[in-house]
Amino acid sequence: MCGEQGGNAIAEVLFGDYNPCGRLPITVPYHVGQLPVYYNHMPSKAGKQYVNMTGKPLYEFGYGLSYTSYEYSNLQINPLAFHPAGEVTISVDVENVGQRAGKEVVQLYINDVLSSVTTPVKELKEFEKVTLESGEKKRVTFQLTSEDLCLLDRHMEWKVEPGTFEVMVGSSSQDIRLRGKFEVKES
């Protein structure tokens, strides 16, 4: 139920009087035969195809629509290498290149490229909703700590393993606009 103003709210979105900015908190499958379907699957499920349909979902985690469009640029990762107790700052420029004001949800995913246990192909670590007028550009900055990089190892202990981490920034789990990497060094 939408409530007593639900009809007005839907009409405002449909006629472009309001620019939506919500994002899906789940993955919506294309067909029931794809279940279970989620964005942070293990590498062994990557690229799974079916005989009569695609392996991609109908709507991915983080998907959302807007009446304007955004461009991402200038990905910066600082430092590019640090020790397990360190922190990394990831920043990106987001610009509204459409004709209307809007709100973009900038999403930061990471992937531990090589680890002692299997980890998901990507994990959402941070997100930020940014309000942008038409033609406006803003810098979005994320801070990742050792807690964001931890994994549960085979001894059931939380730890940050040395190695390469891939950074993915985008508008949804499948709409990745920028990629980069950083290293965690041995202690």
Describe the structure.
- This protein has 187 residues and is mainly beta.
- It has a domain at 70-184: Sandwich (Immunoglobulin-like), CATH 2.60.40.
- Helices cover 7% and strands 37% of the residues.
- The protein is built from two helices and ten strands.
- It has helices at 6-14, 146-149, and strands spanning 70-78, 81-82, 88-96, 102-112, 123-132, 137-144, 151-152, 158-159, 163-170, 176-184.
- Strands 2-10-9-4-5 form a five-stranded mixed beta sheet, with no helix packed on it.
- Strand 7 (151-152) and strand 8 (158-159) form a beta hairpin.
- The termini are far apart.
- The model has no long low-confidence stretch (mean pLDDT 91).
Radius of gyration: 19 Å
Helix content: under 10%
Beta-strand residue percentage: 35-45%
Overall CATH class of the domain at 70-184 = Mainly Beta
Taking pLDDT < 50 over at least 5 consecutive residues as the criterion, the unreliable ranges are none
The CATH topology of the domain at 70-184 corresponds to Immunoglobulin-like
The CATH architecture name of the domain at 70-184 reads Sandwich
- The N- to C-terminal Cα distance equals 55 Å
Structure class: mainly beta
Counting DSSP E segments of at least 2 residues, the number of strands comes to 10
| Continuous helix count | 2
**Describe the biggest sheet?**
5 strands, mixed
Mean pLDDT: 91
- Principal-axes geometry comes out as globular
